[in-house]
Design brief:
single chain, alpha/beta, Rossmann fold, seven-stranded mixed sheet, two-stranded antiparallel ribbon, 15 helices, globular
């Protein structure tokens, strides 16, 4: 029977649940979980709990109709069993722009959207937000133990590189900083990670290829960062991108966050862009021409992290890093959640020319996906777009959209609150219950609705799940062998930049 280590989260008492294909295997001394009777899936859902959702217990209170709900789940299981991810992964990654997969909702696509969304959620769960921690703004776990420390065992992925950005730009409401004078870094924040699927036969069999996954951290609930945006577009070529068309533009704040660096800081002396591109180059060179194996690049992020996901995916393709030495083209796919607009219409067209596929998952009541470009955007009349196309405030979303509505969930409060409507866990909950336009909301995988209240107060009160229940045990303090309580050292050499990053950067700037 597995247990959760004391340094992990304090979780609410789990409700007995039924097995589902995307599983999370907790491990702590705080709680005991019943053993599973069904086989454990290779790639487990990040941040879900073992057993089954509270939905089976709560649905009668919502007058679902047990028979109807179980019938929906049965059809879902049958559809999922009739085809596997390994056989359909190219379509799931957007080869045909997800035509026919969203209405009705394809169960394999739903599972993958939840899985990659939970990779983005892992950035929040691992981030140190505590201003009284000397490690505030860093990742709470070392890279080699990232997934295990989050309780994500047998994820099928290994964190290959951490990503950092300098906080010396005008986004004060996005970055977290410690109140103490002696800190891990005065000018850097952890921004996410690059991971790669492992060599196990089970992982390859499930995924059908090797996958490079890039996850960017966004914002949990605070939306003040939107007001910090300069809200004007500028050519990406001015920030070092390999793009000769000055008409391709992106929001200046996103560009600064992605490309700025601080040479005086060990963690941000290379820009987030440089860190990402060198790691992708390394991994594509290592795995791109593996015999008998296909390769994919998947980028994910929530909120501002979604903007960075779009921008970095464009950059990878524009730099040609998705081409192997033998000339194979590696598909680049972006799954964003509650992400804002990033660039102008020419930016959108260029991404389409490069073959980058983007699927945006949004809550229709969320204001962030409507920003920037509240008035001048892709919905404006064509005549107005032609007139305003050159202005620095005319934005355009990229890719396909899957719009969800939290008011369709019987678990969530119907009121529209800006922060809860933007919550990632709530969006993953909506994905789990979505089967198509106009169809009944029925949780498919058994994902626990209690996760919604991890960092919000969004579940209806009669479910009796306390709001904001996620807490770090003892605020990260541990008892030393001499009996004193201390904050242990966290940063390891392995979490710094790769030793050959200079060499890789030279190759990027001067390709052979």
């Amino acid at each position: 029977m597995a247990t959760i280590p004391s340094h992990n989260l304090l979780l609410p008492k789990p409700i007995n649940q039924s097995a589902h294909s995307l599983s999370f295997k907790p491990h702590s001394t705080l709680l005991n979980f019943p053993a599973r009777s069904s086989p454990v899936a290779v790639t487990r859902a990040l941040s879900t709990t073992d057993g089954a959702s509270t939905s089976s217990r709560l649905e009668p209170l919502e007058n679902y109709g047990i028979t109807a709900a179980e019938d929906v789940r049965r059809r879902d299981r049958e559809a999922k069993e009739s085809k596997s991810l390994r056989d359909t992964w190219r379509k799931i990654q957007g080869e045909d722009d997800w035509a026919g997969l969203m209405d009705p909702m394809d169960p394999v696509l739903r599972s993958e959207l939840i899985r990659y969304g939970e990779m983005a959620q892992a950035c929040y769960d691992a981030f140190d937000f505590d201003p009284f921690s000397k490690y505030c703004g860093s990742c709470r776990f070392t890279r080699k133990k990232l997934f295990d420390s989050l309780g994500i065992f047998d994820s099928g992925y290994e964190a290959a590189r951490y990503l950092y950005a300098t906080s010396n730009i005008n986004l004060p409401n996005f970055f977290s900083k410690s109140r103490w004078s002696k800190v891990w870094s005065k000018n850097a924040n952890w921004m996410g990670y690059v991971a790669v699927s492992d060599d196990s036969e089970a992982t390859r069999h499930r995924l059908g290829r090797r996958d490079i996954a890039i996850a960017w951290r966004g914002t949990v609930t605070q939306l003040e960062w939107i007001a910090d945006l300069k809200d004007f577009l500028k050519p990406v070529s001015g920030n070092g991108f390999r793009c000769r068309d000055p008409a391709v533009k992106a929001e200046s704040g996103f560009l600064d966050l992605y490309t700025d660096k601080d040479t005086s800081c060990n963690f941000s002396k290379f820009s987030a862009r440089e860190q990402l591109l060198t790691e992708v180059k390394r991994l594509v060179e290592r795995y791109g021409d593996e015999e008998g194996d296909d390769l994919s690049i998947t980028v994910t992020g929530h909120s501002l992290g979604g903007a960075l996901a779009v921008l970095s995916a464009y950059d990878v393709a524009e730099m040609g890093l998705n081409r192997t030495k033998k000339g194979k083209v590696v598909p680049v796919t972006v799954f964003t959640y509650s992400a804002p607009r990033v660039g102008n219409i020419r930016f959108k067209e260029r991404m389409e020319e490069l073959g980058v596929k983007v699927l945006r998952v949004v809550n229709k009541h969320d204001v962030v996906p409507k920003s920037p470009g509240l008035f001048l955007n892709e919905h404006a009349p064509d005549a107005l777009k032609q007139l305003a196309g050159g202005l620095p405030w005319c934005y355009c979303h990229v890719g396909e959209k899957l719009a969800l509505d939290h008011q369709n969930s019987p678990f969530l409060k119907p009121s529209v609150d800006l922060s809860t409507a933007h919550n990632l866990e709530a969006l993953l909950h909506l994905l789990d219950g979505y089967h198509g336009k106009g169809q009944r909301f029925v949780l498919s995988s058994g994902r626990d609705p209690a996760l919604v209240n991890k960092a919000s107060d969004f579940l209806k009160d009669h479910f009796m799940v306390p709001p904001y229940w996620r807490q770090d045990a003892n605020k990260g303090m541990v008892r030393h062998t001499d009996g004193r309580w201390i904050q242990p050292d966290r940063i390891r050499a392995e979490d710094h930049h790769a030793p050959d990053i200079h060499h890789l950067l030279t190759q990027l700037h001067h390709p052979s």
